[in-house]
User: What shape does this take?
Amino acid sequence: MLADGSVLGVSFTVPSLMAVSGLHEADVSRLLDDLVARELLTLDVDPRSPERGQFRFLQGVVREVAYQSMAKRSRQAKHLAAARFFESLGEGELAGVLATHYLAAYRAAPAGPEAEALAAQARIALRGAADRATALHDLLGGLTYLEQALPITPDPVDQAALHERAVPLATEAAQFPRALEHARTAAAIYAELGDRLGVVRAKARQAFAQLAEHQDQAAITLLRDVLAEAGDLGPSADIALAQAELGRALMLAGQIEAVEWCDRVLDASDVATPEIVLEAMITKGTALQNVGRDVEAQVILRGGALVADATGNLFSSIRARNNLRVQLQWIDLREALALTGELLEIARKFGQRTWVLHGTAASTDMSFRLGDWDSFMEEAKAEHADASPYFQAWFDVEDALRMAYRGDPATSEATIRRLITSEGSIASKQAMTWHRAALAEAQLAQGRIDEAFATAVESWTQASEADRAFVAGLFAAAAAADMARVETARAAWRSASSGQLPLQIALERMADAFSAAIEGQWSDAQAGYVAAAQALEEVGEYVNLARLQLALGHLAGNNLGEVAAKVLEAEAFFAERGASSWVATYRASARLPKRQRGSAVAMSATNAPESLEGSREAVGGSSGSVRPTG
Assistant: This one.
């Protein structure tokens, strides 16, 4: 009886045990009572338990010994009996149990026609279990069932289909190496079969997996090659899928060519599936942000989310919200953060692990800009251990950025330099942009103004979403009191971005204020400051607002009364966040315009700038080791 029960698992019901043992209910009940008395089994009588009325092994080792004691032939027969019992119940939630028993029966069967028949039944059951798990948003469960079906699937066409089907499940479950392996294997099988469109489709799915970690450069190379090789093939859904993924890769890399590839998909909407068309629209809307077509972009992305919701397209629903969030960061960080909270709620509810990682990391960025430096950091820490290298690097750079402000910029710099060459970053232009911008911040936090500006310049050419990189360069230029650098940053910003979103306006007006202050044109500096401060306040860019007040107060001294009064507020803002040492280093290292050098220009009512060399010594040279004193 113990052996029969071990076939069913850790727990089992009387009817299932009757089916496996072939005994009548009275005999089964008597034997079970005896095993309970001997403390080998226990009966669950908890009215709150979903397993109430089931018998359970008290020790796993007892079950394992009982199971291993059976001959293979007996094990096969009992698993088959169990499978047929569960199949007779016709309950969808038992799909996984059914598949497990058919697979175990096959594994216990000797080679031959009977084993082949059991393999066929197991394949059907495993696919059904994968369907059931996927419908319940158990992505890892669905993936596991598909992978269990592969070794018992002899037909290469069916093998390729299973591998291909596994790719989105693995990708959305953040199992990226598994996703890539399935995609590459599917492409190899299709190539061997001479199925050229199968190869295109499998490689498009490979790119889909790569882009989940923003590996845009690898995806661009892969897709350009596969589309060139398929250039003689006519329009098809598979070609459209590859074109849509190429558009997405180019968008992530910040290339306007993305719009062209999306339009190719839209022009072939008679062959592309609705899902592919929707994805191309979302990519196009995102890419249009890069050329200043902001209203059009927002309409497309909001519409994309509505259509995705209405059609039950979960992935596109989340992706449209995420990409709209990027635009909203230039308009209102609070709204963007709220939308990301909505995204996270959907992702967690439906098992979209990749989007959970993405939303958590994005929230750490936005909360920092808003001045809430500690929110989401615990969530990021909890996600970090099981995250892929790309998301680990994102979490790490956010932590390093806070470290740069809070008194340990040298360690911050070392961390960021490691991330720049890390596996999770080098394949993503966006990641490289963010990391280099953060590196510039860490260098500026150590008083290394010229290096910070050079690093910022290097980051400008990396990718889209480079606003942090331009901000870093602009503040480094202001710290250098160098109008030529300010204008260099402005020119680069204009060439990379157009439009009239509040953050774009803020950066322009900040440049106006810095240039005017360096030249001593106080009315222009005042006008630039007022416009920039208003825009930054509107967006919620409170960190950059405090930095603007501190930097402009240093450049202008007491010549701008409104700004001079705000310097104390900026100092308090940073002190409240444990960043007093950052302020001290900025005061010590930031330069004055040439016309003012040698004069005493107060930074605030309580703190005057020290000489550059003396103050460097006071804060520990360039080590960045000074911490807040409280």
User: Anything to note?
Assistant: Confidence is low (pLDDT under 50) at residues 598-630.
